[in-house]
Amino acid sequence: MWPEIIRLSKEGGLDVIETYVFWNNHEPERGQYYFEGRFDLVKFVKTVQEAGLLVHLRIGPYACAEWNYGGFPMWLHFLPGIQFRTNNAIFKNEMKRFLAKVVNLMKEERLFASQGGPIILAQVENEYGNVESSYGQPGELYVQWAAKTAVSLNTTVPWVMCAQGDAPDPIINTCNGFYCDQFTPNSPSKPKMWTENYSGWFLSFGYPIPYRPVEDLAFSVARFFEYGGTFQNYYMYFGGTNFGRTAGGPLVATSYDYDAPIDEYGFIRQPKWGHLRDLHKAIKLCEEYLISSDPTLEKLGRNLEAHVYYKSSNSCAAFLANFDSISDARVTFKGNEYFLPAWSVSILPDCKNVVFNTAKHPAENAFTRSTSTHEVSLATSDWSWYQEYVGIWGTNSFTKSGLLEQINTTKDTSDFLWYSTRYVNQAVILEKLSNRNKW
Q: What are the pLDDT digits (tens) for 317-335?
């Protein structure tokens, strides 16, 4: 499925494919690496390159809570004295070894940009800033170590840490969230980057199916570039399926559809895919202006503003924004009047003509809609299934007093740990004994 999904991504206006690297898949046993089949990372990166796109490799190796055990291999849990994601020598040694393995694999295949490859960015750790305070000073030391270790691997491309406000130079701290237009990196020498713009949310058992309107998603993207953003990634553009037992917590379902522009099964989701494609076209029409200067702010009224990018005094591109969530507005900009629906951004690549508004349907914008007619031939494959019995089964029962820690007991061979107990009604026994004495 990779080539077709990548093709649809490119046709939708993407330039870069961002992917996690799951440690538990690639080192299922300590020192035994696996990069074959659907875990062939080199083939995946080369497939992206063949499509003419670039790669952001998020090595981590911590991935996220939605993946089983955060992406850590289970054998790591049982190393004596280990503590995860902190200033612990055992953990750091294993993490460095895996980081080096992945980086060297990419170098050997000449896949970093400086080698003529598609990889332009790499990521170490993942959203550690959300939990760092719980670790105290050892957490701060761990961040410093992770940054130093990443740089020492000499990828020759920039490293990022997402949601990590204290990322040390030269690591770039990036934003994750639904809106990142107000985000500022921790150094003026670092570009403003957005590694996770949530196209929806993950599905949890027992909860409604997540949904994010494309108009709001497009608004967030336009506002980000309006405010000087340089790199924005959809999380997810394609989420797919958590096959087998790969889903993590809390209660994450097997579907990782995420209300993404390409749905769980690899099909285009309209109007989201098409609306974003047209947004990308509009932003790229402004590209030469976006890289020529910082934006100049012009107030147009209450909750109304313009950001203008000048290439020269009489050549510019502009973003006109109405960030009032209720009221539409009419504004005057450079002598012309424009209508701005509530919670929307209009893009003017020549500071005059609106080619796209984030709140308007595709037919109302300057770009025409086209439908892909690319024929896809999928190889036939047999269905497979797993029969999981309900209740106690097998011969590995044992007796223990009290509750057990799940992972230490099952070693992640099952999601279930069945308890059975036997109790006797003491009152009934006493009554029977009393009656027996009477007899």
A: 999 999 999 999 999 999 9
- 196 belongs to the catalytic site: yes
Catalytic residue among 18, 125, 127, 264: 127
- Give this prediction's pTM: 0.90
Question: Comparing C-alpha atoms, which of 175, 168, 220, 214 is closest to residue 189?
Answer: 168
Among the options 196, 215, 226, 264, which is catalytic?
Answer: 196
pLDDT at residue 395, rounded to an integer: 72
> If you average pLDDT over residues 29-55, what whole number do you get?
97
DSSP sequence for 172-222: EEEEEES--TT---SSTTS--EEEEEESS---BTTSPPP---HHHHHHHHH
- The rounded distance, in Å, linking the Cα atoms of 201 and 65 is 13
Active site residue 127: yes
Sheet holding 304-312, edge to edge: 296-301, 304-312, 315-322, 344-348, 356-357
Peptide bond into 250 cis (omega under 30): yes
Q: Which amino acid is at 152?
A: S
Tokens standing for residue 271: 């109007």
